[in-house]
Write a structure and sequence with these properties.
The complex is a heterodimer of chains A (about 350) and B (about 325).
Chain A lengths: L2 E14 L2 E14 L3 E5 L6 H8 L8 E3 L4 E4 L2 E2 L5 H7 L4 E4 L13 H13 L3 H14 L5 H4 L9 H13 L5 E5 L7 H18 L2 E6 L2 H4 L5 E6 L2 E7 H6 L4 H9 L39 H5 L4 E3 L5 E3 L21
Parallel strand pairs in A: 3-9, 3-10, 7-8, 8-9
Antiparallel strand pairs in A: 1-2, 1-4, 1-5, 5-6, 10-11, 11-13, 12-13
Chain B lengths: L4 E13 L5 E13 L3 E5 L6 H8 L7 E6 L2 E2 L5 H10 E4 L13 H11 L5 H14 L16 H13 L5 E5 L7 H18 L2 E5 L3 H7 L2 E6 L2 E7 H6 L4 H8 L6 H6 L40 E4 L2 E3 L5
Parallel strand pairs in B: 3-8, 3-9, 6-7, 7-8
Antiparallel strand pairs in B: 1-2, 1-4, 4-5, 9-10, 10-12, 11-12
Classes of the chains: A alpha/beta (about 350), B alpha/beta (about 325).
Organism (chain B): Caloramator quimbayensis
GO molecular function (chain B): ATP binding; ATP hydrolysis activity
GO biological process, one term (chain B): peptide transport
Chain lengths: ~350, ~325
């Protein structure tokens, strides 16, 4: 699998009245062809900002992508592209589906036209061909009566169906990368399962690489190849899905895994919860951002940011517990290992 | 004590007339009871009527038909002091902690609004009570003079809980209290709700669509589909041995945070979507999507019957 996208030292800030909010603070990662990378973290950890930066969707001002950042798509820096190149990139090479299918479709345009728009711009089709192709796309994402449905408006679709339409629009031009920003958060469990299956199936057929952004570890278990855990604008741990679930090393990953109630947990047992709240990114802490909420916090954690430690070829963790001089700490019961 | 019913809901119906000929049957013939000190979970997809059900039980909506008994008294017939007593005893925690707090009131005044209305405490006593409530939900005294925008989602939900507790209720409807919160914060709020129940002997109606969280907090769980209660059982039994085909499908769609399990398990895929609750057809509401559907399912409404002890299901298969 070849490297498709490379993000190097991405730093994004927002200039507000209160000061500079450092939303993303030095994120680097790669995306290979045909794989699914999940970015997991709580709200405000910078996962959406990271993905929006890839398409240059951060409004500036107040947003500000720092000069040292690089986002290479097929060895070309997206951050240095001009408007015309960007227009070809967005929707053509890289496309995005958003969290809220209720507000991300245009309510005054027919569904077919919204899909066709993309095809006309990027593939140079005429209107008639584009509408025909739109019908095919709707069938592909599992919308019954596609022939009739192309002439309907978004309000005539349910939430799950609208998300399918969003996926159809995003995939219309056969992009290399699909960024899905919490695609199922607004949907019910049964619909969520349908949409996840659909994305998996389409990936198998089309070979699209997916960046899946979510806060729910349960959702990514079945679909992601690799997982990257973010906290306070930084990547704290990354690895293959099995590594993150069965051999997590960072206390924040432990906490995330543990705070989801499993169906086996005893009734009304106290759930593991992380004390406190994430740090204020107006004044990000000097040391490890998780230090103030971490049970295993040592003196050094408050003073220095830990460097990433390699566990295997694919797993990398930023935590001082992995330092040879640090005390050996076992993950809490029920975390790691097969269930 | 556990067997005493605090709330009894009998054949509750709540219809909304949306035009001359169209009736939206949000809650249709639902019966259940809630015992003193227990948590009854109510799950279902959006639009299944679970929130309407919760609000009607509190008297926020007037029931179209059926009875709601609180401590044996029909709440629609309460007047004057009795009605005031009921509104003090039954409280609600709302889903959206951003929309349910008045942005122009201080946290102290938000919490004390119920206290003022019911004339429970005044002056210094009132201030003391606010401080006590704040510490009960894990906030500080200093927070009383601040405004809602200064708080995070989890903290706001704590303020909402403090407000509900201010009038010392016996019964609280928790309407998706954790859906808008992050995973790590959800656990904090659920732990708080469980502790409060233990210490204060509260009774909850816990409405949610997150099935694993509902299992965790509830003693018994009811599953709703399109205005009907399709299954009701203790939470252990319901999750281990679901009987209704819809419950089975719903449970099999829960994401499992374990890659090996979630890659290999079989899911029961539901065809199509939830039909509209406007002018529903006769027969079982789930019949069009049910793979076990028989001719009778499309003609006769199934009734909720006790299949095993304390396990109720509304399906022609049983």
């Amino acid at each position: 699998m070849g490297k498709l996208l490379e993000v190097k030292d991405l730093r994004v800030s927002f200039h507000t009245y209160a000061g500079e909010v450092k939303a993303v603070r030095g994120v680097s990662f790669e995306l290979n062809e045909g794989e699914t990378l999940a970015i997991v973290g709580e709200s405000g950890c910078g996962k959406s900002i990271t993905s929006k930066s890839i398409l240059r969707l951060i409004p500036s001002p107040p947003g500000d992508i720092k000069k040292e950042s690089q986002i290479l798509y097929k060895d070309k820096d997206i951050l240095k592209m001009n408007e015309k190149e960007l227009r070809m990139l967005r929707g053509g090479e890289i496309s995005m589906i958003f969290q809220d299918p209720m507000t991300s479709l245009n309510p005054t345009m027919k569904i077919g036209k919204q899909i066709a728009e993309n095809l006309i711009v990027h593939r140079g089709m005429n209107k008639k061909e584009a509408i025909k192709e739109a019908v095919k796309m709707l069938q592909m994402v599992g919308i019954p009566n596609a022939q009739e449905r192309v002439n309907q408006y978004p309000h005539q679709f349910s939430g799950g169906m609208r998300q399918r339409v969003m996926i159809a629009i995003a995939l219309a031009c056969n992009p290399k990368i699909l960024i899905a920003d919490e695609p199922t958060t607004a949907l019910d469990v049964t619909i969520q399962a349908q949409i996840m299956d659909l994305m998996k199936e389409l990936q198998n057929n089309l070979g699209t690489a997916i960046i899946l952004i979510t806060h729910d570890l349960g959702v990514v278990a079945s679909i992601a190849h690799r997982i990257q855990v973010m906290y306070a604008g930084m990547v704290v741990e990354r690895g293959t899905t099995d590594e993150i679930f069965y051999n997590p090393k960072h206390p924040y990953t432990w906490a995330l895994l543990k705070s989801v109630p499993r169906l086996e947990t005893k009734h009304k047992d106290t759930l593991y919860s992380i004390k406190g709240t994430p740090p204020d990114l107006l004044k990000p802490p000097v040391g490890c951002p998780f230090a103030s909420r971490c049970e295993y916090c040592m003196e050094i954690c408050k003073e220095q940011m830990p460097k990433p430690t390699k566990i295997s070829d694919t797993q990398e963790v930023s935590c001082f517990l992995l330092h040879p001089n640090a005390p050996k700490v076992e993950p809490p019961q029920g975390i790691g290992g097969k269930l | 004590m556990m067997n005493e019913n605090l709330i009894e809901v009998k054949n509750l119906k709540k219809y909304f007339k949306i035009s001359k000929h169209d009736i939206l049957k949000a809650v249709d013939n639902v019966s259940f009871n809630i015992r003193k000190g227990e948590t009854l979970g109510l799950v279902g997809e959006s639009g299944c009527g679970k929130t309407t059900c919760g609000r009607t039980v509190l008297g926020l909506y007037e029931a179209t038909d059926g009875e709601i008994l609180f401590k044996g008294k029909d709440i629609s017939k309460l007047r004057g002091n009795e009605k005031k007593e009921f509104t003090k005893n039954a409280q609600i925690i709302f889903q959206d902690p951003y929309a349910s707090l008045d942005a122009r009131m201080t946290v102290g005044d938000i919490i004390a609004e119920g206290i003022d209305i019911h004339n429970l405490h005044t002056g210094k006593e009132r201030t003391e009570k606010i401080y006590e409530l704040l510490s009960l939900v894990g906030l500080n005294k200093e927070h009383a003079s601040r405004f809602p925008h200064e708080f995070s989602g989890g903290q706001r939900q704590r303020i909402g809980i403090a407000r509900a507790l201010a009038v010392e209720p016996e019964f609280i409807v928790c309407d998706e209290p954790i859906s808008a919160l992050d995973v790590s914060i959800q656990a904090q709020v659920v732990n708080l709700l469980i502790n409060l129940q233990r210490n204060l002997g509260l009774t909850y109606l816990f409405i949610a669509h997150d099935l694993s969280m509902v299992k965790h907090i509830s003693d018994r769980v009811g599953v709703m589909y399109l205005g009907n209660l399709v299954e009701l059982a203790s939470s252990g039994v319901l999750y281990d041995k679901p009987l209704h085909p819809y419950t089975q499908a719903l449970l099999s769609a829960i994401p499992i945070p374990d890659p090996d399990v979630s890659r290999t398990r079989k899911r029961i895929m539901l065809e199509g979507e939830v039909p509209s609750p406007i002018n529903p057809k006769p027969g079982c509401r789930f019949a069009p999507r049910c793979k076990y559907a028989k001719p009778i399912c499309k003609e006769v409404d199934p009734v909720l019957k006790e299949v095993e002890k304390d396990h109720f299901v509304s399906c022609h298969l049983y």
